[in-house]
Structure formats: C-alpha cells, structure tokens
Amino acid sequence: MTFIAEHAGTIIVCILIMTGIFFAVRKLIRDKRKGRSHCGDSCGSCPYAGTCHKDTTL
Fold first, then answer.
1. What is the pTM of this model?
2. Which of 1, 2, 46, 50 is most enclosed, with most CB atoms within 10 A?
3. When comparing pLDDT for 50 and 24, which is higher?
C-alpha cells in the first residue's frame, strides 16, 4: 500500500496514457472495419491510391 501512495501520480498518468492509446487503437480498428481511411482520403497525391481505396475512382 505504501508503494501505491508513493507513486500515485505516476500510476494515474500511466493509466491515462494507456486509456488514450486504447481509445486511439479502438478508433483505428472501427474505422478500418467501416472502410474508412486514416490517411485523410486525399488520393490524388498519394502513391498508394490504387491499393488502399480500390472502390474509389480517382
């Protein structure tokens, strides 16, 4: 219990960082399942335009 009391600030910051990472990864996974892209969908200047958005016409 002393360890928790001495390191409460560090533990709280770590929990907040892990929560942020969890929600960011969850959003990326959900967007991927819905067919959305994280690149901003500006395929005109992207060298991978033909590979990542096969259903989109340029």
1. 0.61
2. 46
3. 24
